[in-house]
Amino acid sequence: MDSELPWVTFALIGVMLAFAAGWIGSRLDIRQWKREQSDSPKAYYKGLNLLLNEQQDKAIDAFIEAMQQDPGTAELHFALGNLFRRRGEYERAVRVHEYLLARSDLPEADRHRARHGLAQDFMKAGLFDRAEAAFRELDGTAFATDARLELLNLYERTRDWRAAIDSARKLEAAGAGSFATRIAHHWCEIAEEADARQRPDEADAALAEARAVAPQAPRPLILAGQRLAAAGRHAEALALWNELFALQPGAVSLVAAEYAASALAAGDPAAARERLAALQARQPSSDTLAALLGLEPDAAARSTRLQQALKQQPTLSTAAALLKENAATADPGDKTQAEQLAQVVGARAKPQQRYRCAACGFEAQHYFWQCPGCQTWDSYPPVRLDDQ
Ligand SMILES: [Zn+2]
C-alpha cells in the first residue's frame, strides 16, 4: 500500500495544478473581458460626444474603433450605418447593413431593423428598384407601416401614381389614417398626364375618381373647371368653380383670373363680379383683386376699387397695381414718369408675390400642390406672401 502513496500524491498535485492553471486562465479571460467591456463604452461615448459636437468624421473613427474592440455589438453597426446614410455615404451604409444581415447570430428583430436600414440606404441613393424590393420584404414585421409609407413616397417620386394609390389604400386599411386627399392628388396627376397624352376620356375618369375620393379637395374642382374652360364650356366651368367658392373659398384666388375670363367668355361678368367682390371683402388677395379689375370695364371704377383695396390691404402688390392703373390713364405729359414709378414698385413687389412652403420654406412664383423642395402635399398656403 505504501508503495502506491507517492503516485496518488503526484496525481492529486497534478489535478490541483491543472485546476489552478484553469482558474488563473479564467481570471485572465475575465480581466480581458472586463477591459474590453470598459474600453468599448469609452470609445462609444467618445463617438457620441463627437457626434453631439457635429464632428461626424471623428465620430465615425471612434465608432469604428469601438466596433473593432467589440465586433459582436449590433447597436454600433446600426449607429454607424445611420451616420453613413446621413452623410450621403450610401455605399458604406449599405455595406454595414448588409454585413449585419449576413450575420447568422442576429436576432430576428435586429434583422428586420437592418433590412429597414438597407432599404432606406437604397432609397436615399436613388436605387428605387432595390429599395422597393427591400421595403416589400418588411411586410408583416414591426416596420410594415413605415415601409408602406416609404413605398408610397417611392411611387410618388417615380410618378407611378397607380401604385401610389394602391399603397395609400393599404395604409388606410391598416389603420394608418386617411389618405383621401393624397389619393385625390394622385388621380389629378393621372388626369394631367392623360391630357398631355391627348387622352381626355382617361383624364375625365381619373378626375371623377379624384372628386369621389375627396369631394372637398380643391384641386379636382380647379382642374375639372380648367379643362371645361379650355374646351370652351365656360358656363359649366363657372358652375364647377362656384362649388369651390362654397367648399374652399381660400383656394379661389388660385383660379380667380381664369374664373373672370370664363365669366367674360360666357357673357355673365356681373354675377362673377359680385361673387369675387364678396370674397375679396372677406379674404383680400391680389389675385382676386386683379380678377375683379379685369371684370371692371370702367377706368374710374377700377381706380376707386384699387384705392379702397390699398386702404384695406396696404401691400406693395396693391400699390403697384394702383400705380399701373394710374400710368395707363395718366396725361401724356406725366405718362413716362408714372410708368417708371409703376415699374419700380412692381419690381419691388415681385419677390412678395411668391408662394412659400409652410413645411420647408421653399419659395416659388408658381403654386405647387406638392412641394418640389420637401415633397409634402398641400404645404403651400394658397395665398401669396404679400397677402398673408
Ligand atoms: Zn417644402
TrEMBL record:
Binding site for Fe cation: C357, C360, C371, C374
Compartment list: Cell inner membrane
Side of membrane Cytoplasmic, spans: 27-388
Membrane-protein topology: Single-pass membrane protein
Domain LapB rubredoxin metal binding positions: 355-379
Coiled coil: none
Residue intervals passing through the bilayer: 6-25
Record's GO cellular component terms: cytoplasmic side of plasma membrane
Gene Ontology annotations of biological process type: lipopolysaccharide metabolic process; regulation of lipid biosynthetic process
Pfam family of the protein (one): TPR_16
Gene Ontology molecular function: iron ion binding
Keywords: Cell inner membrane, Cell membrane, Iron, Membrane, Metal-binding, Repeat, TPR repeat, Transmembrane, Transmembrane helix
Extent of the signal sequence: none
Superkingdom of source: Bacteria
Function of the protein: Modulates cellular lipopolysaccharide (LPS) levels by regulating LpxC, which is involved in lipid A biosynthesis. May act by modulating the proteolytic activity of FtsH towards LpxC. May also coordinate assembly of proteins involved in LPS synthesis at the plasma membrane.
Similarity remark: Belongs to the LapB family.
Protein name: Lipopolysaccharide assembly protein B
Organism: Rivibacter subsaxonicus
Lineage per the UniProt record: Bacteria, Pseudomonadati, Pseudomonadota, Betaproteobacteria, Burkholderiales
Gene name linked to the record: lapB
